[in-house]
C-alpha cells in the first residue's frame, strides 16, 4: 500500500471539505424546496384547488341518508296497511336515526393527528350519548304512545340499525 505524503493528505482534506460544503448547501436547498412545496400545497389545498383524498373525512353521512330513506319507506309501507303500524314504524326508525345522527355529528366533527385524543374521547362520548338517546327514545315511546304495535316498532328499529352493517360498502361507493 502506498504511503501518503503530507501534500497528498492536505489534498484529500481539502477535497473532503469541499464535498462537505457542497453536500451541506445541496441539503439546505433540498430542505428549502421541501418546505416551499409543502407551503404551496397547503395554500392550494386551503383554496380548494388541491384535494388530499386520503385525508378527507369519511362519507359517513351516506349511512344517515340511507337510514332516513329506509325509515320513510318502511313507514309508508306500514301506513298503507294500518295507521298504528305506520306510526310505530316511523317511531322505530326515528329511535334509531336520531341517536345515530348525534353519534356521527359528535364523532366525525374533528380530524387530524393533533386531535387524536379528542377524537377518541368523542367516540366514547358519542357512543354513550347514542345509548342514552336510544334508551330515552324507547322509554318515551312506550310511556306516551298508545296504541302501539310493538313488533313493528322493534322490527323497523332492527332493520334501520342493520344499515350500520353495510357501512363499509356505503363508504366505498363513489357518488359523482
UniProtKB/TrEMBL annotation:
Sorted alphabetically, which InterPro entries does this protein's record hold? ATP_synth_I
Where exactly are the transmembrane stretches of this chain? 59-80, 86-108, 128-145, 151-171
UniProtKB keywords: Cell membrane, Membrane, Transmembrane, Transmembrane helix
Major site of localization recorded for this protein: membrane
Topology of the protein relative to the lipid bilayer: Multi-pass membrane protein
Location of the protein in the cell: Cell membrane
Protein name per its UniProtKB record: F0F1 ATP synthase subunit I
Organism encoding this protein:
Parendozoicomonas callyspongiae
